[in-house]
């Protein structure tokens, strides 16, 4: 792994309140004998991210108390109710104070995405100008990698639950798609019915 690759930081967005799950924060859902936030943080670590930063919001104190997140930097997003965009901004702002050259963003509610997909996207990092996205049958999904040169632009356009969607659309020609459909499933845990995906 090159020095530059060592500067790809994992950024886990885990602040949502689970409104459609009766107000159960997704970070605290059980999966494979531990909390979903623990599982997702380990996916980033196992996928080769040199550091892992976790954005917390809903019931953040409870997540801090219950979750075992060794060597993770925990970031509080007081504006989590504004949606994923606010969490992305909080995470990128925190990373701006580090030596990270790229942020590899994973959502806490996508347990079908494992270390293999993270590693593929991370290996596509070339420079702070890199924009990389996992793809599923050619359709853009998560995880995504944002080189540091894009952070300010992404933060300026990240609103509501759209995250970086608007920015990626504006810069579609620059986005490298990395097919991950053979190693990951990009479903979300959004509703009660989706809980069947948890083990």
Automatic annotation (TrEMBL):
InterPro entries: MobA-like_NTP_Trfase, Nucleotide-diphossugar_trans. Residues 10-173 form the MobA-like NTP transferase domain. It comes from the Bacteria. PANTHER family: MOLYBDENUM COFACTOR CYTIDYLYLTRANSFERASE. This is Nucleotidyltransferase family protein.
